[in-house]
Specification:
- The complex is a heterodimer of chains A (251) and B (217).
- By secondary structure, chain A is of the alpha/beta class.
- Chain A has one domain: Rossmann fold (3-Layer(aba) Sandwich).
- Chain A contains 9 helices and 6 strands.
- A 6-stranded parallel beta sheet of chain A has the order 3-2-1-4-5-6, with helices on both faces.
- Chain B is mainly alpha-helical.
- Chain B contains 6 helices and no strands.
- The chains are: A alpha/beta (251), B mainly alpha (217).
- At the A-B interface, helix 1, helix 3, helix 4, helix 5 and helix 6 of A face helix 1, helix 2, helix 4 and helix 6 of B.
């Protein structure tokens, strides 16, 4: 076992302890931290409401990343957004559709939708084909989503998950339909594309903050954001100290 | 109770896999490998379920003549053909009477991938360039702020920096392009990657400590 392994394990334990610590603190004091505004999350409930009222459909894409790989976290962030949207849109004549490029995330999406419908005593309205695998490769997935947006009269396009360059194709199809687009991904290249193509892009790790903003200020999600901030400060300090040590030839 | 068992299994397996990743010794390493093998097998089954779901979606389109049902028909025909070719190509080579069918199926399967799937996907990928140029041009109309202007200016500098014609006006651009790529762009990408990594760590830990439960209520 190397020092790097030990360090990795220590970071995992410390981060886990910090999440539990901040979570417990927020529950005891009842004062979770205030968050900076993120336009996409601020406007999402309103856009969902507008789509429901207009009888239009919301499309949620969880991307083509495979659950169980390094893309899992982004797909989980997408599922959080889906839960919030589905809860608000179950009464719509056109309930939301979810597309993925992976079998496991499709099953998770169907389970999330089913859970929301059951919670709202509307299980008879649940359509098991609302959560679907659109294509098993990134580009076939993008091609399928491009046509699905037209067929399903999509007015709001929420692409939150593991998406690569193919997101530009999907976003362009959405732009052609004048759909409102919120895009968040876990790759820097795709984030650059989302900046150009989305109405409201989620840059950096904002994509992972969906739970803290959308789930009624969920304390554990806020605790994980606080943990991220602590870790970020540690990383910045390590970079600065490392650069200074290198500068004076001590490293 | 209904949720506690899956929760306990998920938390313990997640924690074990994480610990075994950093301490790959003895039974821990073997257990991690076993869990990952199971996960791989489950993911493969999930993909099969997903493919069945894809076929069902298009069967529904076809049965109701909804939307461009012709595309759904094309997809289903291709699906059945490829599934058939794929399965027939698996016939063992020892069975002489089916050897021709197996060889034809293998060729057809290969042909469809190399001469249909790959060129179509490559064409779609090529469209990305055009889409990005158009999206860049639209950006200033959609978002009139300093960051949009910076995005356009930097894009132009990078593109012009690749020009090989020797023009006095453009001589400084390759150096500028190289500096942008190596200093601000590389720094920004590393910053984004670090942020994404931190987000991934905390999201994973939320699942491991049982605070996030994507597998149920």
């Amino acid at each position: 076992m190397s020092i790097a392994d030990l360090l990795g394990l220590a970071v995992g334990f410390v981060a886990g302890a910090l999440i539990v610590g901040f979570w417990t603190w927020a529950r005891r004091t009842g004062a979770p931290p205030a968050l900076r505004p993120v336009d996409a999350f601020r406007d999402l409930p309103q856009k969902t409401g507008e789509s429901v009222e207009a009888g239009k459909r919301i499309h949620v894409s969880l991307g083509s990343g495979v659950v169980g790989s390094q893309n899992t976290a982004a797909a989980l962030a997408g599922l959080t957004v889906l839960e919030v949207i589905a809860a608000a849109a179950t009464i719509s004549d056109r309930p939301p559709i979810v597309t993925t490029g992976d079998g496991a995330s499709m099953i998770l999406a169907q389970d999330t939708l089913r859970r929301v419908y059951r919670r709202q005593n509307a299980l008879e309205r649940y359509d098991h084909l609302a959560g679907r695998l659109a294509g098993p490769t990134p580009l076939s997935y993008a091609a399928a989503v491009m046509t699905a947006q037209k067929d399903e009269a999509v007015s709001t396009n929420i692409l939150i998950g593991s998406l690569g360059n193919e997101l530009a194709l999907m976003a362009d199809a959405g732009w052609g339909r004048q759909a409102h687009q919120i895009i968040g991904t876990d790759t820097p290249q795709a984030q650059a594309m989302s900046y150009v193509t989305a109405d409201q892009p989620l840059i950096g790790e904002d994509v992972f903050a969906s739970g803290a903003y959308l789930l009624g200020g969920n304390p554990v999600h806020k605790a994980s954001l606080q943990t991220q901030d602590v870790l970020r400060v540690v990383v910045i300090a390590a970079i600065v100290i490392g650069a200074l040590l290198k500068l004076v030839s001590l490293l | 109770m209904k949720l506690r068992l899956p929760m306990a299994v998920a938390i313990s397996m997640g924690a074990l896999t994480l610990v075994a990743y950093f301490i790959p010794i003895g039974p821990l390493a073997g257990l991690r490998l076993l869990l990952l093998t199971w996960a791989g097998a489950l993911a493969a089954v999930a993909l099969l379920v997903g493919i069945a779901n894809l076929a069902l979606v298009h069967l529904r389109h076809l049965s109701t003549f909804r939307g461009p049902w012709v595309y759904s028909l094309a997809l289903l025909v291709a699906f059945v053909l490829m599934l058939g070719f794929g399965l027939l190509s698996l016939i063992p080579t020892g069975l002489q009477e089916f050897a021709d069918i197996a060889a034809f199926s293998h060729t057809a399967f290969h042909f469809a991938f190399v001469f249909i799937q790959i060129p179509v996907e490559a064409s779609l990928a090529a469209l990305l360039v055009v889409i990005m140029v158009v999206a860049g041009a639209r950006l200033l109309r959609a978002r009139r702020n300093w960051s949009a202007v910076a995005f356009i200016v930097v894009s132009l500098i990078l593109l012009l920096g690749f020009v090989t014609i020797n023009l006095p006006l453009l001589n400084a651009l390759p150096g500028l392009r190289s500096w942008i790529m190596q200093a601000p762009a590389a720094g920004a990408v590393r910053g984004l990657l670090l942020g994404i990594a931190l987000g991934t760590i905390t999201t994973g830990l939320r699942v491991i400590i049982g605070a996030d439960r994507p597998y149920g209520e």
